[in-house]
């Protein structure tokens, strides 16, 4: 069985930053990622809120992270992790390419956007369909957009989008929002916000880019077209926490619970990035988590080994 000081599961901004800090601390470091290194940012067309880089595509920024980690001689393995087990103070990570023993483990597997599954959603992802107003709102300046959802995130992000869009429609399947009343009052007081009640999205359509959403009224069954240039989906996120959900403490929704040092309820196992229970999920906060987790792992190893 191969051994490393630090194993990181997940090759997004949190995991890659952890690899950079782990190597700088002198830890033998292995990043295990099944799929594209870079994480969810690789599905983003443009990123303009990473400090110091005015503009980059998601894949470009992901490559920068990976290249930095490689320059410090972090190791990478394309493999799928099957399980995590304790072996004394160490962790055994079983993958489809063998088992690895780690003195400390960081899980940085991120989160997945909950999809509606309607026709056109996948086709127009990055071409008018977005799951992040903070990331993409500025691209819809002087255009009309639709927000799908009725919870706090949907209502609050709709208000945020009014900084750019001329009109923001909030499409909700019920006749009132589920969001906190203060957020609802603020949204409804904004002249750019227009609720579309009792409606669900049947289809997202356009020619190369989003041009409209087809809505269905859940009470009457009537179909209607809503011309928009962007569709922001806020129907929830799901943490990619299957590997650890039964071995560490989690919060409602399955989000992994950590302290300020990114430590979970299992000693020697840290979590970083979007699978954590946290208020803001951005590249910059994921990177911050990764740095903290790596240094906490270093402290753990120095104390126990």
TrEMBL record:
Its EC number is 1.8.1.9. SUPFAM superfamilies: FAD/NAD(P)-binding domain. It catalyses: [thioredoxin]-dithiol + NADP(+) = [thioredoxin]-disulfide + NADPH + H(+). GO terms for molecular function: thioredoxin-disulfide reductase (NADPH) activity. GO terms for cellular component: cytoplasm. Residues 5-290 form the FAD/NAD(P)-binding domain. The keyword Nucleotide-binding does not apply. InterPro entries: FAD/NAD-bd_sf, FAD/NAD-binding_dom, Ferredoxin-NADP_redctase_2, Pyr_nucl-diS_OxRdtase_2_AS, Thioredox_Rdtase. GO terms for biological process: removal of superoxide radicals. Its cofactor is FAD. Binds 1 FAD per subunit. Keywords: Disulfide bond, FAD, Flavoprotein, NADP, Oxidoreductase, Redox-active center. PROSITE patterns: PYRIDINE_REDOX_2. Pfam families: Pyr_redox_2. PANTHER family: THIOREDOXIN REDUCTASE 1-RELATED-RELATED. Homodimer. Belongs to the class-II pyridine nucleotide-disulfide oxidoreductase family. This is Thioredoxin reductase. It comes from Dethiosulfovibrio salsuginis. The lineage of its organism: Bacteria, Thermotogati, Synergistota, Synergistia, Synergistales.
């Amino acid at each position: 069985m191969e051994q490393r000081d630090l194993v990181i599961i997940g090759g997004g901004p949190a995991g890659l930053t952890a690899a950079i800090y782990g190597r700088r601390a002198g830890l033998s470091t292995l990043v295990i990622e099944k799929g594209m290194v870079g994480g969810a940012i690789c599905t983003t067309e443009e990123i303009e809120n990473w400090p110091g880089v005015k503009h980059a595509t998601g894949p470009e920024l992901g490559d920068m992270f990976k290249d930095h980690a490689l320059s410090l001689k972090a190791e990478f393995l394309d493999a799928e992790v099957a399980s995590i087990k304790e072996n004394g103070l160490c962790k055994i990570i079983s993958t489809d390419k063998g088992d690895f023993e780690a003195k400390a483990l960081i899980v940085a597997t991120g989160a997945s956007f909950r999809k509606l599954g309607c026709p056109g959603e996948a086709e127009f992802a990055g071409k008018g369909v977005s799951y992040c107003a903070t990331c993409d709102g500025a691209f819809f300046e002087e255009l009309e957009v639709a927000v799908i959802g009725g919870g706090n995130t949907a209502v609050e992000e709709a208000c945020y989008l009014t900084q750019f869009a001329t009109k923001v429609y909030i499409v909700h399947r019920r006749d009132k929002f589920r969001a906190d009343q203060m957020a609802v009052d603020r949204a409804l007081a904004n002249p750019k916000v227009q609720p579309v009640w009792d409606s669900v999205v049947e289809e997202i359509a356009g020619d190369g880019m989003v041009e409209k959403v087809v809505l269905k009224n859940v009470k009457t069954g009537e179909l209607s077209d809503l011309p928009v240039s962007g569709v922001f989906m806020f129907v929830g996120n799901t943490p990619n926490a299957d590997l650890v959900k039964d071995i560490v403490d989690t919060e409602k929704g399955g989000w992994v619970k950590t302290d300020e040092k990114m430590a979970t309820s299992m000693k020697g196992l840290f979590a970083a990035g979007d699978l954590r229970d946290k208020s803001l999920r951005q590249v910059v906060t994921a990177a911050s988590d990764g740095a903290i987790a790596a240094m906490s792992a270093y402290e753990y190893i120095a104390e126990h080994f």
